[in-house]
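G., before I forget:
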Amino acid sequence: MEDFRTPTARARGLGAARGGTRDFWYQRVTSALGVLLITGAIIVVIDSIGADYDDVRALLSNPVVVALLLLALLNFCIHMRIGMQVIIEDYVHQPMAKVLLLIVNAGFSTVIGVVGAVAIIKIAFSG
Amino acid sequence: MTGTAAPTPRIPIAPHMQVYRPTLTMVMSIMHRLTGTALYAGTVVFVWWLVAVAAGRVAYETFLDVFGSVPGLVVLFGLTWAVLHHALGGIRHLIWDVGRAHTYPWREYLARANLIGSLTLSATLWVVFYPW
Amino acid sequence: MRAFLPLNFGTDTASWVAKGKIWNTPAGAKATRVFEIYRYDSESGRGPRLDVYHIDRGSCGPMVLDALIKIKNEIDPTLTFRRSCREGVCGSCSMSIGGRNWLACTQRIDDIEGSIRIFPLNHFPVKKDLVVDQRHVLAQHQIIQPWLKTAKPAPEGEWLQSPEDRVKLDGYYECILCFSCTGGCPSYWWNGDRYLGPAVLLQAYRWIVDSRDEATGQRLDTLEDPFRLYRCHTIMNCTKTCPKGLEPAKAIARIKAMLVARQH
């Protein structure tokens, strides 16, 4: 099908969405906070190396560790949802495929966050 | 679109990716994206670890068996590097976002520091903390 | 697959470059340089090809443009390219030379090792040989309204500007719109239909920071879009390939910072 739109019509497209700044800002906020949170999370993981099951459980039910891991999980689920959305928008141009992948992305990020949080809370409250 | 109409002449697009000489910042941009994608999948490993601890001793032993195997250790080392590379890359991007280090040679130094830093850091972490 | 992936992710057979003609080595030449040049003629009925020319460096000027003119004058008059000022001011002769985009008139032949490969500006539709179709990118340039916009009637003299405010335009007003940066931007390759690209965004910033302009907010509104602006991922190819030494990536970073600033 030949495209008879003028270059102006094509360039203007659907106009400016007046958006994108929020995602851009959240991505920067979560990356700056992420550097701190991931450092904490790495220390926790290192601390668990070689420990037996009861020690790991005790470590993960420490209130500071619980708070750190919950914050990290929330932070990175936001970060990875935005990041993957940018990748999908960059490379996937077929409208149906794009919408489907955006939904899968939002779903995956949410499921990871919720399942992880439930696990952390369960460990925290069952000693 | 079924081939009944005369084919419209297709105008070629000038070659791009296949003729562009890779630049360090461009390669680092691709690696930032690849490590980000790897970490996206890697969250499954992290959540698996949490769920295994929550589920009990047997589930935790299974987790240790899987990630204590050679392929498992390779995955864990890969994720370690991906985390550190992506985190340092994030700092690089934050510096660029505030308009610093855009000029030569600083932008190249940043990109190089990113790569060298992530490799040495992940190697150091494993040498020091892995129970060899 | 073509519908699923971005335009021309290497899947577009019309853009494949075939091997072309190898033109004769000049007789009696001492130091020849090999030029591999993209050729395309829509009237030939064939796709693009890569022709090989041998140039006697001794009888050729120092710049790539000199070699192109020499080929056109002495070897193959059908070779088509844009050029005008031949001194880096007009921006006509930007093209892909040795794997990056530069002005043919300011690119020294001797700075490139081995065979010199020349293509039209990356990812632009090709009209003929090294001449590309700029209609889309120029229409994108119109979107940002590259002129002084004021509600107040023009003063009898000049619009006044302090020296401090004038300095803010340095590094941005010098852009000659050669689109080397836009052609070198991977984000523009995948999303050039919606992403405005580095050249146009640098121009947009040049008007946004102009203290005499009264439409700053409106200009930011026009750019605030996930595709028009935020496809920029700071890959830095634009800044590296600017033949005028400008920094489009920094201009774009500043625009993003302003959009964040007006939210908080």
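Chain C touches chain A at residues 3-7, 9, 135-136, 138-140, 142-143, 187, 190-191, 193-194, 221-231, 233, 256, 259-260, 263 (CB under 8 Å). The two ends of chain C are 43 Å apart (CA to CA).

More on Monday.
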